[in-house]
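User: quick one, fold this
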Amino acid sequence: MAEMRDLATGKVYIGPEQPRDDRSKTTLNGDKEYEGTLAATGPAFVGGHSEDAKGVVNIGTDAVDFKPKVSGRAVDIEGDVKIVTESGKALDIEGNTTQQGNVNQDGTLFVSGVFTTPSTINTGFVNGTGASAAVKAFDLPHPNIEGYRLRHACVEGPEAAIYVRGKVSIDGVIELPDYWQNFVDKETISVHLTPMGAYQELFVEKIEYGKRVYIRNQAGGKIDAYYQVWADRLGHDMQVEYKGASAADYPGDSRKFSAAGYDYDVRFDEKEDGTWFTSDV
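Assistant:
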């Protein structure tokens, strides 16, 4: 139950007497509590909150005849706030948010929708649109194996192309990655060969089902070469040239792309101590 104000300490305690659960007893001003201290065991309801106690402190909006100066604002804090979680979900927000000032993020930021910014993104990886400060990359579910993901770094060109490279010899067979099935347009596969050691009359005999490439030597000699195999990703047709004043005028589906200079733009500079920062664009 509530007590009358303790004149010796200036504190009000709300809660059971037996056992008395006063968590403010170590919050002292010299040898007594601070003037105006309120200790309550909860649950507490403030404003027009529902009758369901979803937390220890439950705060609603308008109540009875009181109307806050900012309509719909339940809590107004002038000062810092620290949240420490025991459940692993420190902050759960339903609805839109407005941020003025910088945000320092320690850890990975996962975005399930489109992440758009007209300004800059500091170093780190943004998972969702595929935009990274250091490398243009994409991270997506594995097309063939449940519970697995793929992450690739991108090269720049007029198509959403991917590649593999390596060395081919002896049997002249290049095995393409299994995940290329249902991932690339097989009709766009191209093969580039660099003979090693000596000139070789190498050519591509056939590409079998988009799974393997057969290399042959016209002169009948050995096969010993580096290779690059390129292909265009399925479902990412890109219009290279279009009329417009900015990336916002792109006539295709922009949700499949992250346009440098529009969706993100980063400039790196090195400080004297060897650390890096992003300068204004």
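User: anything notable?
Assistant: The first strand starts at residue 12 and ends at 14.
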